[in-house]
Structures are given as C-alpha cells and as structure tokens.
Amino acid sequence: MRKYELIEHEEGQHAVTFMCRLLKVHRAGFYAWKQRRHAPPGARKIRRQELSDLIGKIWIDHQKILGVRRIHAELAAQGITVSLWLVWQLMRELGVQGIQPRATKRTTIPAPDASVRRDFIGRRFTPPVPTTCLVGDITYLKTGEGWLYLATVIDLTTRMVVGWQTAPHMRTSLVVDALTMAHRAGYTAGNAIFHSDKGAQYTSAEFADAARLMDLRLSVGRTGVCWDNAVAESFFASLKNEHWHHHHYATRARARLAVAEYIEVFYNRKRRHSTLGYRTPMSVMQAFFDRSYPQADETAAA
Predict the structure, then answer these.
(1) Whole-prediction pTM
(2) What region holds the Integrase catalytic domain (predicted)?
(3) CATH superfamily of this structure's domain 133-290
(4) How far apart are CA 194 and CA 217, in angstroms?
(5) Which of 28, 80, 131, 280 has its CA 20 to 30 A from that of 218?
C-alpha cells in the first residue's frame, strides 16, 4: 500500500500517529504491514523463487523456445513435482514463453516420370520398433550466400534425426548422402521402410539403387499432402520456428554448423517430445539398443 510506504519513508521525520491520522489509516494496520514487509521469506516463497530461477535457466538452456508443457516435463525429469498452473504463472512473471509455429510452404516438385510406388506407412507414424520405419524430406534454409538445402532421415519410432546432409543444390546426391549417414550409423534395419514424398530426388533411379544396396523398401505418399509425411514436416517446422527464424547466417558454412548443433546437440538429445511421453529421441533410441544388445554392455564392462 502506497500510504504505508510513505509513512515508513517519513517515519524518522514525523510521528507515526500523526501521519496515520493525516492519511486516514490505522496505526495498527501500518505496523502489521511493516512487520510483514520486513519478515524473512517463508519456505513457500523461497521455493517459488527457486522454481522461478530454475524455469528461467531451463528456458535459456533450451534456446528460449520451450513452452509450459515441455518445461513442466523438464522439471519432472529432474524429480521436481509442480503443477502446470504454477509453471504457467512463473513463466508469465518471468515474461518468457514458447515459440509459436508459423505457416510452412510446400517445396516438393514431383518427377514427371515418377514410378508408381506403394505407401507402406499409410499415416501410421508410431511403429513399435526403432530402425524399421524411416521418413525423409528436403527443405530450404535462407543464408547470406543464398539457399542451403537440408535433407533429413528421421526414425519414426523415436523421432530421432538419424541422417542428414546439406548442400547448395537439391540434386539426388543430397538425399542419398543423408540416407547413407543413417545406414552407416546402424539406424536402418534389414528390409526397413523408407518413406518420402514423390519428389524427383526420391523417385529417381539413382536413389532406388542406393536404397536397394542398403536393403530398404521405398514407400511414397501423395504429392502436396503434408499429412502423408507429417513427421518430416513437423521436424522442419520445429527447426525453422524454434531456431532459423530467429537467427541470420552470412555463409552456408556457418549455417551448416548451426544445423549440426540444432540436430545433434539440441533436437536429438535435449528436446522432449510429447509423442514420446516427453522423453528425448536419443534416450528412447538408447533404451531400445540397451534392451536389444545387453551383451554389448556386459562385454564392455568386462
């Protein structure tokens, strides 16, 4: 109350009784206010401040993009039990919020002579076993030197980006290199499905030959229907909304480093996904390998 603050400020110059009478407030009320004002903070207030500080740190550590639910999940992962409502309140007090998505543009250019292939996915984006179903797509990223094109390969079960490549062009070699990265890292099971749109790169003979050598079955969705490749589209939206729209890179080389950091440091290892129960892609993938190959850990320990 401003009247009480004024009385406290002038307490050394004038009598409290006189000022209370002048300002038409009760003297007992003033002393009760003063006691509360200068009392040491209680446990509840201290915990609220600690939570506020931690929420601010989590938000900064995750590139200032997390919203209420993902920060709530981060707190839960650290063993901190708190309501969504309190997280929302503290974020509002801090003046921080999650990144809101922007509209995306379609970049797929279908090949005029694209061969007819089956859709093995059929919008079933939650296969039970990692490394058996993969999706790929291409997007473009603006730099000071012009466009940088990014091709990705994403594991459907874990949502982990298991392969990626950038180039100043959209030739078929771009998508072959991304798929090769995933294969060499051991993220493509035998007879696994690779799903994409009907872009010319993915329907080319060169890509089909590469997939055959890797023992992959090719699957395609319909051109221009984003839901047929929704997981790949979702990753690109996250990359652009959470990072790219908020930075400028003068060169393609610097932009490539930023892509690598976003994918390998943040997206795969730190970003929690609601579809994964607010776990990270890497933790889900690692859990799968730990269950599938327990003898590897035992051999390493020996």
Answers:
(1) 0.66
(2) 126-289
(3) Ribonuclease H-like superfamily/Ribonuclease H (3.30.420.10)
(4) 6
(5) 280
The letter for the amino acid at 81 is T
Q: How many CB atoms lie within 10 A of CB 11?
A: 13
Q: What is the DSSP string of the chain?
A: -HHHHHHHHTTTTS-HHHHHHHHT--HHHHHHHHHHHHSPPPHHHHHHHHHHHHHHHHHHHTTT---HHHHHHHHHHTT----HHHHHHHHHHHT--PPPPPP------B-TTPPP---SSTT----SSTTSEEEEEEEEEEETTEEEEEEEEEETTT--EEEEEEESS--HHHHHHHHHHHHHTT---TTEEEEE-SBTTTTSHHHHHHHHHTTEEEEE--TT-GGGGHHHHHHHHHHHHHTGGG---SSHHHHHHHHHIIIIIIITTT--BGGGTSB-HHHHHHHHHHHH-HHHHHHHH-
Per-residue pLDDT of 237-255, as tens digits, reads 999 998 998 999 999 999 9
Tokens of 134: 């993969």
* CA dist., res. 302 & res. 300, Å (int): 5
Domains in the chain: boundaries: 3-38, 43-94, 133-290
CB 130 within 8 A of CB 157: yes
Record the tokens describing residue 269, joined without a space: 């290892």
Residue type, 220: V
Residue 181: partners with Cβ closer than 8 Å, 6 or more residues away: 153, 162, 163, 164, 165
∠ CA 47-53-55, nearest 5°, is 100
| Cα gap 220→142, rounded to integer Å | 27
The mean of the pLDDT values for the chain is 83
Instruction: List, in order, residues 6 or more apart from 180 with CB less than 8 Å away.
Output: 163, 210, 214
In angstroms, the CA 214 to CA 226 distance is 27
